[in-house]
Write a structure and sequence with these properties.
Keywords: Hydrolase. This protein is an alpha/beta fold and 500 residues long. Helix content is 20%, strand content 28%. It folds into two domains: 145 residues, Immunoglobulin-like; 298 residues, Alpha-Beta Barrel (TIM Barrel).
Length: 500
């Protein structure tokens, strides 16, 4: 956890899209690069070899940490380098980048060029800088691409560093009757599923159902609305239908379909959306699942058919995180997935879906610390940067990197840190995360990876539809998985009772 008022600056060097160093002139191929970055303050220029900057090198299952800017580590295309330094005044901090090269392992290292990063270039929470490299004759010889992440401080009266928090907050001790059980999106995925579901996903009704069934945790997807309210919804885009009614009975109504990012809707606007089952929309029959069709009066505001509270409110989509924390019994733990857009390798830019990363994390942490009370809270995200922010800003709640690894179902993620199981483990260990939340098929296909993960001292949670099968869930428990996420909590509970 960073100092209370300091800002941590992380500079990333990687080959997620292409090699970060591009030279203008031709020369020997397969050069080996040694990149040394020094922090420069306005008042004090750090001496070469100073220990104020830390280099973390991620390689399969491992992390190497080097203190200071005088090192001989060679950057490999499969590596991920992070240079970290803290400051209390970002406006006084800059960086000098010195690039050295070697033609062969046995050849001497020679200075290739130098680049500079100024404080004015570090804006927002994150970004990518293309830094010119200048040789000793002051000629531009190429560029080096560097990503940056600013970890800004976050304050709350309950956010106090505690060794007790760090030692007791995790799930490394399995339950006496096996692993912990987590319900996917509460009671299971409902939209896009072929099963008839009584409790719509990511709703208060689903979370309460998980509690009644004795599930330990409910997983939920949390995003930020336009007015900065944490809301629970899975997709980053909302598909809407705008229906225009005819001016005369002889004409037909016209429907226009469009998509809008969750971040561009206010929490109140989400509450007024009428939700219909897609397959039945054309017939105008309303929602199949209980309570999905909202009741509206002439002013398009939510109403009830009686003076009593509307019993369907628990079934409505877009509940706020605060509502879930306040209305669901505290005995049910929450696994809160921070649903930040994360780019796949072959995907176009997703910048239009993103908000400032520090703002995103701070808004969610604020509600959690205000309303969670004694409830067990686990935090997770596919985006490694969001995991770094969650881990650095607070010490109370465990943080997990969620990963799908290399599989045949989805395209790989662009970020090398989340692309494979090996790099996910290395990243989690390097940032002192509590563990990883991994696609269970990867464990079934490569059982030896479980032992490697556990040997690193990480907590292991497994997600995937296969976990609903009794034999698969039993296998995960027997192999030491600490928590199993299931999609059908009712089937899982029946199987658990039968096996007992």
């Amino acid at each position: 956890m960073a100092a209370a008022d300091s800002i941590e600056v992380d500079l990333h060097l990687h080959s997620s899209t292409r090699h970060p160093i591009e030279l203008q002139r031709s020369g020997p191929k397969d050069l080996k690069y040694n990149v040394r970055i020094s922090a420069i303050h306005r008042q004090t220029v750090c001496e070469r070899g100073s220990k104020n900057i830390i280099l973390k090198i991620l390689r399969e299952y491992d992390c190497i940490e080097v203190k200071g800017d005088d090192h001989n580590e060679i950057f490999n295309e499969t590596d991920f380098f992070t240079y970290s330094v803290s400051t209390t005044d970002l406006t006084t901090l800059g960086f000098t980048i010195n690039v050295f090269n070697k033609v062969t392992d046995d050849s001497a290292t020679s200075h290739l060029g130098q680049g500079h990063i100024t404080p004015l270039q570090l804006s927002g929470s994150n970004g990518t800088l293309i830094v010119p490299l200048i040789d000793k004759s002051f000629q531009t010889i190429g560029t080096i691409s560097v990503d940056y992440l600013l970890v800004k401080p976050w304050h709350h009266p309950l956010n106090t560093p505690s060794e007790q928090d760090r030692h007791t907050r995790g799930l490394k001790d399995q339950k006496k009757d096996g692993s912990y059980v987590c319900g996917h999106r509460g009671a299971g995925e409902s939209f896009g599923s072929t099963k008839p579901w009584e409790y719509p996903e990511n709703t208060i009704s689903a979370f309460k159902a998980a509690h009644r069934m004795g599930i330990d945790f409910a997983e939920m997807d949390v995003q930020i609305s336009k007015d900065n309210v944490p809301v629970i919804f899975h997709d980053t885009m909302v598909k809407l239908c705008l229906e225009t009614f005819p001016s005369s009975p002889s004409k037909e109504s016209k429907s226009t379909f469009f998509e809008i990012p969750v971040k561009d809707l206010t929490a109140e606007q989400m509450k007024t959306i009428k939700v219909w089952e897609w397959s039945e929309m054309a017939a105008n029959q309303g929602a199949r699942n209980k309570g999905l069709k909202r009741k509206h009066d002439e002013n398009n505001t939510s109403t009830s058919s009686s003076s009593k509270p509307d019993v369907t409110v628990d079934y409505m989509l877009f509940p706020t995180l605060e509502e879930a924390l306040c209305e669901v019994p505290q005995e049910l733990g929450f696994f809160i997935e921070l649903k930040y857009p994360f780019r796949e390798m072959y995907e176009e830019s997703i910048d239009h879906l993103c908000i400032d990363k520090n703002q995103f994390v701070d808004s969610i942490l604020q509600v959690i610390f205000d309303k969670a009370g004694a409830r067990k809270i686990l935090l997770g995200c596919f985006d490694p940067d969001i995991c770094v922010l969650c881990q650095s800003k607070q010490s109370r709640h465990p943080v997990f990197l969620i990963t799908q690894g290399q599989n045949t179902i989805w395209d790989p993620y662009l970020d090398i840190r989340a692309r494979t199981t090996e790099m996910a483990v290395a990243f989690a260990k390097s940032e002192n995360l509590d563990g990883i939340h991994i696609f269970s098929s990867l464990l079934f296909d490569r059982p030896a990876s479980i032992e490697k993960i556990l040997q690193k001292g990480l907590t292991l949670i497994a997600w995937g539809h296969e976990n609903d099968k009794p034999e698969k869930k039993k296998w995960l428990v027997e192999h030491g998985v600490h928590c199993v996420q299931v999609d059908d909590i009712f089937e899982s509970t029946r199987n658990h009772t039968t096996s007992d």
